[in-house]
Amino acid sequence: MNDGGITAVAIGASAGAVQALLHILPPLPASLPVPVLIVVHVPADRGNALVSLFEARCDIVVKEAEDKEPAAPGTVYFAPSDYHLLVERDGTLALSADEPVNYSRPAIDVLLESAADAFGGGLVGIVLTGANHDGAEGLRAVAAAGGIAIVQDPASAMSGAMPAAALARCPDARVETLDGITAFLVNLVPA
């Protein structure tokens, strides 16, 4: 575990997600001491091409989350299309085909709320660009559990609605540019 007591990172994004994540994920080193769990709104009828896109550009391990898989440090886990990604209390990943939340499956709120329950104050929750309000309640849950809540600066987001909604529900969240978010995550690696 790193000095800050951070044990996991959970990120949610929608419209503009690929561009934002192309900024954040490639600089992350393979030695990142925490898992990174990501929900991106992808259409249910389309295969999830995110893993192959990022695998080729990242030093850190990138994979699609599997049900009952322990979340390992130095690994980025993408939610599969048409499944909610949750975290069990023991840090194991879980997939669910429950009803969509905010018209989305996977839903960002589902990931952030379950990760807040599992990791408490050790969680960093990040809401990036997007065109709806998914992630707002989840980020509030992260902050309420003592975790670190970060919102992409709505003015710098391709679609500012989602970060603005998250900021409205979680006004004490840190507001960062993509460069600031990237630097924060890279700094989780012990010197």
TrEMBL record:
Assigned EC number: 3.1.1.61
Active site: 14, 41, 134
Superkingdom of this protein's organism: Bacteria
Residue span(s) of domain CheB-type methylesterase: 9-191
Alphabetical UniProt keywords: Chemotaxis, Hydrolase
Catalytic activity reported: [protein]-L-glutamate 5-O-methyl ester + H2O = L-glutamyl-[protein] + methanol + H(+)
Name the record gives this protein: protein-glutamate methylesterase
